[in-house]
Amino acid sequence: MDPIKETGSCHLEDVHIKDMEKQPQQIQVAPSDQAHIRRMFDHRVLPIVPDRLSMVRTYMLLHCVYGAWGAAAMCSGAVHNLAELIVCRCLLGVFEAAFGAGAPYFLSLFYQRRELGFRVSLLLGMSPVANCFASALAYGITHIRHSIASWRYLFIIEGAPTVLFSAIVFFFLPDSPGTAKFLNETERTQAVERLQTFDRTAKNRLDRSQVFRGLTDYKNWVHTFIHFCCNFSFAGLSNFLPTILHDMGYTSINAQGLAAPPYLASFILCVVAALISDRYGRRGLIIAVSAATGMIGYLILAVVQDESKTGVRYLGVWLATCGIFPALSINITWLLNNQGGDSKKGAGMAILAVLGQCSSFVSSTAFPRTEGPFYVRGCAIGCALTGCIVVFALGLYAKLVHENKVRDSYLIAEGTCGSFCRWGVEDIEWVESPYMEDIKWFESLYMEDIKYFKIFNIL
Questions:
Q1: From 77, 239, 251, 397, which residue has the greatest number of CB atoms within 10 Å?
Q2: Alpha carbons 459 and 338: distance in angstroms, whole number
Q3: What is the set of domains in the chain, with CATH numbers?
Q4: Closest C-alpha among 108, 106, 155, 151 to residue 1
């Protein structure tokens, strides 16, 4: 579970940090300010982590980040003044950012393009699942009567499992398909060959030319803007949804409980949407449909300003929550699908993670308590940004359709095959050429002659 969300739960339960040196009213600004402070440090970590994953032992890096993330959460429960709290929350944001950028990239090293969506959705879908249980857990923990303040228990209990599982990751997480200890030699060979002709993940180093190409690829910037729009709702709903429900007239415990079903439904829809996307090889259309659903939800919340129509507004909460999480997950998968080498993937993820997270600045100030109970400004911004997702997803889809037609016609003119699926080759080594950067010449494992293999953009 993400401990950052628990600050908002504490605030909803009116749990003030009374045993710290500062006054409670000074501490209460933390839920919004921490979102700013957390993101201030993202730009120092995110450009480094994805690009360097191929230069170090990947599982060791993720293990260290994962363990440090949990340790920072536990330390948040041991602070005694505002300065210590801010330091812990900044570190928590740094490690969260590193893991959030590195984990999807790491998955892309193990799975084919049409297998990646489901795996990324399981990873990122844990966020709404965590939200589903975090509210109930926060409510239970904050009602513990003990000599230690309940808010301290909250952070300690949330961070301890993360530290424990980081040790498990160290011993069981493989570094690449070719080094998986739970596979025999034949299975490791097959795992590598089904992805590519040689095990790039174990041998490659940072390719600066690919990093430059990743930084200048227009697709990465479109994905970044889509992520920027998605992340407004991703961060805003996670931090403020219980407060929004509370201001609809529900008690604190009912607000915590009513926040859980939309989160659980969004996880299910996130996985289902990813399975459909993988099955048919379509990312952009599903992102557009999901974002349109979220846009309708925000529109309902912004327009319906009648305290007697809580049922209608609660429907808006459902639509907004269930629409945004699938769009965010599939967008990250889409970026990873259409990159050439590992370094180019890392560069793309760095751009997305650094600039895409900046919408957290907006979401952390878009739902002030003074604008309750309707929060028109925050919901209107959410509606506008989710509408932008629809436009940009459909625009990128149309552009990639055109690019694929150009590449296919080029290959046909050369008398070669425009399909790579015939031989089951899922990834290739890229060469520099206007329309042939996706082509590799190599000797087929099943045929003696040399063939062209071509990979197209996933749409």
A1: 239
A2: 9
A3: 3-402 (1.20.1250.20), 403-454 (no CATH)
A4: 155
